[in-house]
Every structure is written in C-alpha cells, then in structure tokens.
Design a protein that fits this description.
Helices cover 16% and strands 34% of the residues. With 897 residues, it is α+β, with helices and mostly antiparallel strands. β13 (265-272) and β14 (279-287) form a beta hairpin.
Length: 897
C-alpha cells in the first residue's frame, strides 16, 4: 500500500517544496480485545488518543477480557513531519461512570512515525503491552489487541495474509512492536542537560520595555528565554532567564520512558516568555536513531555536550511574523536564530531497587556546569565569496537598487541588533565611491584594535537592467563584487570532514547507479560492466574513508558520540567496502537487477550516515536585498564549502563556481507564487581557517586583477573587494527547441498554450506560442549573439555555465502563467573538445514533464576563430545536445545552406 499523500520510502519524509495538492493523512485504529487485565470486578473502557484528540470505546461490564472490535479514524490537516511526531496512546480505564475519571489500568504509546515505517504502514492484529506510567515497578498490566494504520484519505487498507486463529491468539509472538525491539523493554531515564544559549534575537513583545527605555534610559535585553523539551508525549521546561540574549541555565530535564522508546525524535525549543503569549525562538529535533546504535557493538543514546544551531524566520522582530512556523521547526529556516549548548544521556533503571522513584513525571533539576573549552578550541574562520553573475531577477523588484548580503551565524548580519551597520569617515575626498560604500557595509563591532577592517558582508547596491519583460539582471560584467567575513567558532571541522568524505562516496555511487539505470532503460549494451565499475569505485572509496579517519586520532574536545559514531561509521564502511568487492565478482548479465537493489541499499545507508547530529559551523545564508529589505534567499551548508588540505575532506562546492537559485522565504516559496525564479546567481565561496586562506582565490576563472579597498591600514593583506576581469571570450549560443511532451494541463480545457523561454547569462529569448496542446513541436532555432564569458577559453569547455529553460502557459486574460516546468542545462566535456549540454534534474518548481520529455539541442559556438574545436555529431537522436563548432563551419547542424 502506498499512501497517496506521501510518495517515498517508509521513512519520515522531509517537507517538500513541490506545490502539489496532497490529501490529508489519517490514522485508523481498531480496538479488538484485551486480555489478562490486572484487577477485580472491572468495567474496562479503552481511551484512544492521537495527539490532543481522544475517543472512547464502549464500556464492558465485569470482565478482565473485554471484546470491542471498534473502529476509530483520526483526521489531520498538518504537514507530515508534524503528524509523524504525534503520540498514539492506548489506555485501559476501569470506570463505572464515564462522566467521572476512572482508574487507569495500564497504557501503551508510540509515535505515528513508527507506525508509518512498518510494512504497508500498519500493525495488523498485534498485542500492545500495557504498563502503569504512575508506577514503573508494577510490571505488566495486561494486553490490548488492535490494528493501527497510517493511510491517505480514501486509500484502502491492505489486509495482510490472515493467519489461523491459533497463531493470532499467541500473544508473545504478535506483540505491537517494530522488528528488532525486544518484547521485554526496560525503564530508562533520559537526561537532557541545558547549559546555555548564545546569539538570541530581540523579541520585542513588550511595549513597556520601549517606554522605559525612552523615559529613563533603561536598556535591557528584550527577550526572556527558557528551553522547552518534548519527548514521548511529555513536556519539561527550564526556568526563565529574564532579559538575556546569552542566558545561562545549567539545568537538566529528566524523562522516564521505556527503552528502546517507540518515539523517534526529541524536540528542543527555545521560547520567549511573555505574559500574553509565549513564542518560539528556534526549534531543534534530535533523532534518537542518529545518536545511538542497536547493533552488537552499539551504544545507548548520547549527545554532546555540543552546540546545536537553530534556524527560523528572519531576526528582525514583528508582532505578526508571517514566518513564525519556521521557528516552530516547520519548513526550512531562512535565518540563524540562536545556538544552544546541551547534552543528552540515558540511564537504564533497575526497577527492583526499592530506592528508585516509581513515577514517570518529568523532573527538572540543577546540572553541573561545564568548562568553556569542553566543546572545542575557538578558531578564527574566514569566509570569502565572489558574485560572478546575478540574473533572472524578478521584475517586481527590478525598479530599486539591489545588493546581496552574506551571513554566517550572526556575523555579517546588518539588520539585526547584534550587527548594526558601521559608518566610517572618509579620509580625503578622492576615495572611490564603491570603496566607501562597501566599507559602510561592514559591521561596527568587526574591527581590529588597530582599526583594520575585518569584514565586508554585503555587495554595493546596484540598479538592475532589463533582460526581458519578466527578468532583470545586475550589470556586473567584468567587475565582480566580493564579500569576506571573519568569524569565530569552536573547531569541530573533523565532523564535517568525515561527512564530506561519505557525501562524496554517496554522490559518486548515485551518479553511477543513475548511469546503470539509464543504460538499462535505453537498452544500451553491457550495463553490468558499468555496475562492476561502480562497485569497484565504491569499494575503494570506503577503504579510503577508513584510512583517512584512522590517521586522525586526536581526541581533544571529542564527545562520546564523536568517538562512538566514528567507530560505527568505520565499521559500516569497511563492511560495505568488503561487500562491494564481493558483489563485483558476482555481477553478471542475469543477476544484475538483483545486485542493483543491494547497491541501492548501500546508497541509503550512506545518506543516513552523512547527516551529522552534532553541529559545528552554522550554515551560510545569501540574501538578496532591495531597498534595505530582505527579498529572497539561498541557504548553503557550511560543510559544502569547507576547505581542507585533503581533497576528499574538502566540501564539494568549495572554491568552485556554482549556480544558485534564490527563492522566497517560508510559505511564499510554495505553490504557484513560488514557481517564479527570484534570482539566479553564479557564486564562488570558500570557507576555512583564517590561517589557511592563502589559496582562497585558486578556483576562480583566470584573468582577473584584485581590487583592494583604497583606505585603511595593512590593506595589502586583505581580500579584494572586487575582481576586475581583463580576459573574456565572446560566444554565440544556438538553442534548437524541438518539442516537449506530457506538459501540465494549465487551462480549463485540459490543454495548455505552451511556449519556452531560454535564458543564458544576461540574455533571454522565447519560442512561439503553440495553442491548445500538451505536446508542442516548436522546431525553432534561437540564436544568442555576443555572449560574453569571462576567463580562459579552456575553462569554458571544462566548466561551462548553466542554461535555464522555462516552459510557460500563455493566457489571454492573465498574460502568462509561469512555472509549468523549469530545467537547468549544463554543458559537459565529452572529449575531442566537444561541448554537450545534458538535462539535469528538474527543480522543485517543475510540474508535469519528465526529463526525457523535453527534446532540445544546444550548441555553444565561440565567436572568434582562435579557438578551434573538434568535429560534431550530426545526430540528435538522444535529444540532449550536439557538438560545438565555429560559427558556420561545415558539419554545423544549424548552418544555413
């Protein structure tokens, strides 16, 4: 059974950005019967709870083995992540009067996500073990037989093959527990220690605070934070620290729960205390599966002491924050909110000990403070960025100056109170305007004692130029603006390095598997050879990981989770490497499909291991600003641009020119409103220790001069504020737009009036509109003349820029509807100096068209005779591209005869 509201594997799905209408999920529960209930003269009733909603069965008189067979359905109109965290609680109550609260016999609980991960997303005819949460020493309280399923509304519940009644009545063999969970679970205490927080935003919820500040000059921190922890349906919170942006708690919240718990996530939230309404500042989820191991050499859940970074809405407070859901942990955070230092430990309880506390109520106690250096040595980090291109800027904001701001944590933030813009006096009147404006975009508190400037986090505001009627672009041309930020963080790069090694292994494996599947689909010969090569590459990558991690035996500032997780990852990858080596010799033509499934399991395991639960350096945010307001953003994981002297440990996007599409924050990025591209940027980013920054410009296209600030001390040692390119190549681009298939029906007639837009650098062109069709055939050539690319010619061949193609529906009332589909085209060197442009995966805004269903050809032609290229194929059968020729050369498929 595949639920209609979520398509994917039986795991907790992440929130998606695809604007597809989904049917709300349902939890259906059938209470069948109870057995061996403890008590005399019972009139049992079963209370079924899912989240905050309760329903009751009928009452059965004078029985310890009641039979109900009653069916309940719970509807939810919430995102999947919220629904999966809801707790299902089954409680048997002894009561002679439903109007008054009865005596609890026993209860059982698990989260909805645990049910969803089961085969067919259900438990069928299983027995729940009842226990008394008010007395953990009381032992078994009975069994409750039930069915639980998580389905999409209207979906049929697939009934498993019926066993005979004897097998179903065997309680011990049919317990309501996931595979691998022992029937006799133990009670355990979960200690969540909350130490302190840093970098909290201003939460100006009190008008009196502003009045006091105006009248008597009292200037307190406008936030009253406390930490709330939710786990297994219970809630605990620390004390409130009044008026503190950097609160200190040193408290622990203690939960008593069965182990292993049937609730997979723990929710930690910093909240602002207010007399009217407490508000979330930031939320973090700890997945217990990522901080423990169930294997023979496994370990109990453990975490920290480590910092966790919290993300959410932008930091400038408004009374009605439209992005408040982001602070609750729903969707992708668009700004750094705070970071919290915490730890987690688990203690298995001996219930036979008479001194043990029998209650499961949440306790809050004082915790022992920890040393400042226990989370790692503070190091100075350096972030550099260059903006090589800013195009496809939405026309709605094209009439005002635009600039880009880069932040890492609170460093670089020019709007929040912790990083106010600093104004610096000009010395002399001959300074260039750009220099003075860029200096003003540095933070006032980001200066050395000798007056040297340390950070420039924003580009100079610039008025955009018109590309076409939909998009604008910034005239960067040969002058590329730069930013640089110095920041200070605990040095936990080892965590990110290990994640990068595994991430690259997983990326290569995924690329290889895609190649194999494409060969099978197109019936190309010998896909088994490619699969053997994929396994060989996987095996060598796994052994390389073990070698690299063995070399670094430094245990300074490593937590227990760091040590245990490293040992676990090394075991997993060593085992995976051995299996891949064995599988390679077993891959034959007739066994290839079976082996392919096994290799796909390797990929899933690698992706799981890559996610590091203990944070280090916060993510980088790039914001497009218009008239001082934040418009659209991109979030870049810090590990992806982190530098290392070891190539495998370096982030996959470090010191590389990458294309970034900016999107609207929060809910505005969903649905039709979010399909329009807000901006397309070509960026170059580098992050590393400040003492390692000598090669931070090494990955940029050649042929530029560094332009330094013209004022200040020691500026020769500073990074450039802009790059002036002296080398450029002029090209002609020819886009052959053939046809598209299976487009989305955008009109009420069930058809569309499609046309395509092609964007390259600062130019854009459209095909003609074809009326009332879902399979348009344009058969049209679009020619882009005088395309200027900066750098050396060989760099264009090795790393060509992205071409964007958008499909629109023409509407006679509304001018056009954007976002029917969007593709990115990237060129790859195919040997013999030919450029071939292949279709990349559609972005999250695409609708209704598969990759293979857009038939195009793109030829990139140098517009000067100095660069000779090889002969091209005249065939376009695969629909993905063609060769590259000097304009009008023989063999050119677009040459006018």
């Amino acid at each position: 059974m595949q639920a209609s509201w979520y398509r994917g594997q039986a795991t907790k799905p992440a929130l998606t950005r695809v604007g597809v209408r989904i049917s709300p999920p349902q939890v259906s529960i059938t209470v069948i019967e109870a057995r061996q209930l403890v008590g005399l003269n019972m009139d049992p009733v079963v209370c079924v709870e899912v989240g905050e909603e309760k329903k009751y069965t009928s009452m059965k008189e004078s029985t310890n083995c009641p039979y109900y067979n009653e069916y309940f359905v719970f509807d939810f109109h919430v995102p999947p992540d919220v629904m999966f965290d809801k707790i299902i609680r089954l409680s048997v109550i002894h009561s002679k009067n439903l109007l008054r609260s009865g005596t609890l016999v026993g209860s059982f609980k698990m989260d909805v996500g645990t049910v969803y991960t089961q085969p067919e997303h259900q438990f069928y005819h299983k027995w729940a073990i009842l226990s008394d949460p008010e007395d953990i020493t009381a032992g078994l309280k009975g069994y409750l037989k039930c069915d639980i399923a998580v389905v999409g509304k209207g979906d049929n519940i697939k009934t498993p093959h019926k066993a005979n009644e004897t097998e179903e009545d065997e309680i011990e063999g049919n317990l309501l527990l996931p595979d691998g969970v022992p029937p006799e679970r133990q009670w355990a205490r979960f200690y969540i220690k909350i130490y302190r927080a840093e970098g909290l935003p201003r939460m100006n919820t009190s008008l009196m605070a502003n009045v006091k500040k105006a009248l008597i000059g009292e200037n307190k921190d406008l936030v009253d934070p406390y930490v709330q922890v939710l786990f297994a349906g219970q809630k605990g919170k620390t004390s409130v620290q009044k008026s503190s942006y950097e609160p200190l708690w040193n408290e622990q919240v203690i939960f008593t729960e069965m182990f292993p718990p049937l609730c997979k996530r723990l929710k930690v939230q910093i909240r602002d205390s207010d007399k009217v309404n407490d508000m979330a500042i930031g939320t973090h989820f700890i997945d217990l599966r990522k901080i423990s191991n169930e294997g023979d050499k496994g370990f109990l859940p453990t975490f920290g002491p480590a910092w966790v970074n919290m993300y959410g809405s932008t930091r400038n407070y408004t009374l009605m924050d439209e992005h408040q859901d982001l602070n609750e942990g729903l969707g992708e955070g668009v700004s750094f909110r705070a970071r919290l230092l915490l730890s987690l430990a688990v203690e298995i309880l001996d219930t036979s000990n008479p001194e043990i506390t029998s209650s499961t109520e949440v306790q809050v106690e004082q915790a022992t403070p920890i040393a400042d250096n226990c989370t790692g040595k503070m190091e100075e980090f350096f972030l550099f960025g260059a903006f090589l291109e800013a195009t496809m800027i939405d026309r709605k904001i094209g009439d005002k100056p635009i600039n880009f701001e880069v932040t890492i944590g609170n460093y670089g933030n020019q709007i929040d109170g912790t990083a106010k813009p600093g104004l610096r006096k000009k010395e002399g009147g001959d300074g260039e305007q750009e220099d003075s404006e860029l200096l003003q975009h540095s933070s006032e508190d980001e200066a050395d004692d000798d007056g040297e400037l340390v950070s420039v986090s924003s580009t100079q505001p610039m008025k955009p130029l018109i590309t076409d009627r939909n998009y604008f672009h910034l005239p960067y041309f040969e002058k590329k603006p730069c930013i640089y930020i110095k920041s200070w963080w605990q040095d936990q790069r080892r965590r990110l390095y290990n994640a990068n090694i595994m991430d690259k292994i997983a990326d290569k494996l995924e690329e290889g598997l895609n190649d194999v599947q494409e060969m099978i689909k197109t019936e190309k010969p010998h896909p088994e050879r490619r699969l053997r090569g994929v396994l060989e590459e996987l095996s060598s990558g796994c052994f390389r990981f073990v070698t690299l991690t063995n070399k670094d035996q430094s245990l300074s500032a490593r937590t227990r989770l760091d040590r245990e997780r490293l040992k676990s990852c090394m075991r997993e990858l060593e085992n995976m490497g051995q299996q891949a080596k064995t599988l390679r010799s077993q891959v034959k033509k007739n066994t290839m499909r079976d082996k392919l499934k096994l290799v796909q399991n390797f990929l899933q395991k690698l992706r799981f291991l890559v996610d590091e639960p203990q944070h280090s350096i916060p993510d980088i945010f790039v914001w497009m600003m218009s008239n001082g307001k934040r418009i659209a953003y991109a979030r870049i994981p810090s590990k992806d641009i982190l530098y290392s002297i070891v190539d495998e440990e370096t982030g996959k996007d470090c010191a590389k020119v990458k294309t970034v599409f900016l999107r609207l924050p929060g809910k505005r990025g969903f649905g039709p409103a979010g399909w329009t591209v807000q901006a397309k940027m070509e960026t170059y980013l580098w992050l590393g220790l400040n003492k390692q920054r000598k090669d931070f410009l090494s990955g940029l296209p050649c042929g530029f001069e560094e332009k330094k600030a013209s004022k200040g001390l020691g500026l020769q040692a500073f990074p450039p504020i802009s790059l002036l390119y002296t080398k450029k190549q002029v090209f002609q681009l020819r886009a052959h737009m053939y046809q598209a298939r299976s487009l989305f029906a955008a009109d009420s007639s069930g058809l569309s009036d499609p046309f395509a837009r092609v964007f390259f650098i600062t130019q854009g062109q459209c095909t003609e509109v074809l009326n009332e069709t879902l399979c348009p055939t344009w058969d049209q050539l679009l020619v882009f003349d005088n395309v200027e690319l900066y750098g050396e010619a060989h760099e264009m061949r090795d790393d060509p820029p992205i071409i964007v193609i958008e499909i629109y529906d023409q509407d006679t009332v509304v001018r056009e509807r954007p976002g029917v589909a969007r593709w990115e085209q990237s060129a790859r060197d195919q040997g013999a100096n030919r450029l071939r442009l292949g279709v990349k995966a559609p972005t999250g805004r695409s609708r209704g068209v598969s990759m293979e269903q857009l038939l195009i050809g793109v030829v990139s032609l140098p517009d000067r005779p100095g660069w000779q290229v090889g002969p091209a194929s005249n065939r376009w059968a695969d629909g993905h591209g063609a060769g590259s020729h000097p304009a009008g050369a023989p063999g050119d498929p677009t040459r006018a005869e």
